[in-house]
Amino acid sequence: MALVFDLLGVFFFALSGSLLAARRGFDIVGSLLLGSLTGLGGGVVRDIVLGVTPTAFDDPVYLLPPLAAVVVVYFLHGPVRRFRRPILVFDAAGLGLFCTTGAVTALEHGMNPVAAALLGLTTGVGGGLLRDVVANRDPQLFDPGDLYALPAMLGAALITAFWAVGWRGVWLEAAVAALVFALRILSLRFHWHAPHAARTSHPARTEPAPPR
Amino acid sequence: MALVFDLLGVFFFALSGSLLAARRGFDIVGSLLLGSLTGLGGGVVRDIVLGVTPTAFDDPVYLLPPLAAVVVVYFLHGPVRRFRRPILVFDAAGLGLFCTTGAVTALEHGMNPVAAALLGLTTGVGGGLLRDVVANRDPQLFDPGDLYALPAMLGAALITAFWAVGWRGVWLEAAVAALVFALRILSLRFHWHAPHAARTSHPARTEPAPPR
Amino acid sequence: MALVFDLLGVFFFALSGSLLAARRGFDIVGSLLLGSLTGLGGGVVRDIVLGVTPTAFDDPVYLLPPLAAVVVVYFLHGPVRRFRRPILVFDAAGLGLFCTTGAVTALEHGMNPVAAALLGLTTGVGGGLLRDVVANRDPQLFDPGDLYALPAMLGAALITAFWAVGWRGVWLEAAVAALVFALRILSLRFHWHAPHAARTSHPARTEPAPPR
Question: Which ranges of the sequence are coiled-coil (chains A, B, C) (predicted)?
Fold first, then answer.
């Protein structure tokens, strides 16, 4: 059951990578590589920090969701493109699932609470960050228009805190994932956003990327 | 003998990194760093996933090819620039060598066949991907105009399949590397290419990188 | 005492990451993530290559400097922006500290001298490189207008050479860090720079980034 949720999370993230590949005019191989990186990258980084063989390399079943995402984007790009909202909803679901499972995995490997929360965050946002870095664009993660990392941070911190007082189990994880999901969706709906990096900064003074 | 081939592969890849540094106006230190990353990056990522000390750090002889590439590009940039075709040929040779040696290394470390094929691909295309990511440009790997990852995938998969039925050895590896090399060269010559990420996508509808 | 210096280095580097986040209009979460990546990324990569749990994940105190940098940039962005020179001085201090502590850490883990020097360089320049890669801009490291990697290379090589002849200790490290710092500052002051990647290259012939 946990595996099914995990694979669904990989699929939703991979979908966002394959869609980006389609928008940028990459070929189907780029779609597969970018989708895999988005869906599996966060967990691979977490496992490398933990010093264990990355799950994505250990168990081939994790490669099926990116393959499915490639097929869906190839045949249904038009319809999928129009459904921007469902994609954001799926991505929010992946975020909620990954930040909780990532924190739990880290705790199970004996990491301290702060590191476990960090690795939960890494698992949740790492894939999307790698997607944007490889696709050569500004990370969506840093977009000041809504909340993305903050719900994931909160979720990973909650999991860690509950673990410290002995509350564990799949239902608790599901509840925290649902909370992260809800906060992400609400931030999109109501344009919640975090303060800018600098209090005094305003658009006219921010500096564009240097001319290239 | 295997080491000589390996070092040649590193040299060809490093050459492409140092040439890019020259084209972008970086200094000789950038040439060394970008060349090293291109020549050694794929193998380092593979070894980190395998959980072993990266070969490039374990054996200093691996730093000689990037140094040689820096010297060649510094003194012969003009001539080298004009020989775009030889560079592509050398790069194809590196691709063929690395995807096979990468898969074999993974199999020798007891990875499952799918993971071994994946790590062969990673070894083959990882360095070039890191080069483009660090040099801040769209990955050549995703260029829909020819085949790059696909021959490497095929080569790594063949090595893994042959290994499963007990066929191993340096001649087999050389044959697979030659096949990957040939497919890459033929794809350049005849403009073979993979389908786009989306069936319905056509140039006018692909989205450029957002203004920055 | 070594820890205090280390944390100061993290703080100076994190400051440059958070300032970049402010200039690019990212939010306060982006400021924290980019600052952490800059301050801690080089050491994390070094520890992953060494095969040990990254210090930044092992000891939560390493997260305080990035937090402090976020606060400083949030409240004092205007003044901080005007003090471009102090920032460069702080960054040079971080560079000197990190390339020496990085090389020492690698030697203590039994790496060969060449690998230790490489890992010292990685620790010194890795965080800034990750900052620029994630923020989607050309790496400052490759800027041909001054010296950045070269002093760090020299410092890491000196540490390794001294270690080989049995000279160790915090005062020696401090002296080497001071030398790296001085060379970096002098290169800024007198516009020292390394040769271009290609001898025959001149500005009119360098190729801009491709249009996107």
Answer: none
Rounded to an integer, what distance in angstroms lies between the CA atom of residue B81 and that of residue B136? Answer: 21
* C147 to chain B, closest Cα gap in Å: 9
Name the token pair of A53.
Answer: 């063989």
Angle made by CA atoms B112, B117, B122, in degrees to the nearest 5: 120
Chain B neighbors (3+ CB pairs < 8 Å)? A, C
The CA distance from A7 to A147, in Å, is: 24
Using CA atoms, how far residue B123 sits from B4, B47, C8, C23, in Å, is 17, 9, 37, 36
Residue B196 distance to chain C (closest CA, Å): 19
Question: Are the C-beta atoms of residues A146 and A192 closer than 8 Å to each other?
Answer: yes
Inter-chain contact C141–B18, Cβ cutoff 8 Å? no
Residue reference for tokens 């999991």: A159
Contact by Cβ (8 Å): B204, A23: no
The answer to whether A194 and C28 are in contact (CB under 8 A) is yes
Best CA proximity match to B48, nearest among C167, C155, C44: C44
Enter the ipTM: 0.85
Strand partners, A196: C27
What digits encode the pLDDT tens for the residues B118-156? Answer: 999 999 999 999 999 999 988 888 888 888 999 999 999
Nearest to C201 by CA among B35, A58, B73, B194: B73
Amino acid at residue number A185: I
What single-letter amino acid sits at A123? T
- Name the β-bridge partners of C27: A196
Report d(CA A146, CA B12) in Å as an integer.
45
Q: Quick check: C79 contacting A, CB < 8 Å?
A: no
Task: Sketch the domain layout of chain B as residue ranges.
Answer: 2-195
In terms of DSSP H, where are the helices of B83-169?
A: 84-108, 113-134, 149-164
CA closest to C109 among chain B residues: B53
pLDDT mean over C100-127: 94
Q: Cα angle at B119 between B116 and B122, to 5 degrees?
A: 155
3-state class percentages of chain A: helix first, strand second, coil last, to nearest 5? 75, 0, 25
CB A151 within 8 A of CB A183: yes
Q: How far apart are CA C127 and CA A7, in angstroms?
A: 32
Please name which of C102, C127, C97 lies closest in space to residue C16, comparing C-alpha atoms: C127
Q: How far is CA A128 from CA A92, A137, A138, in A?
A: 12, 11, 11
Query: Higher confidence at residue C198 or residue B163?
Result: B163
Measure CB to CB from residue A198 to each of C29, C60, C77 and give the nearest one: C77
Structure tokens at B29: 């230190």
Residue A11 has pLDDT above 60, yes or no: yes
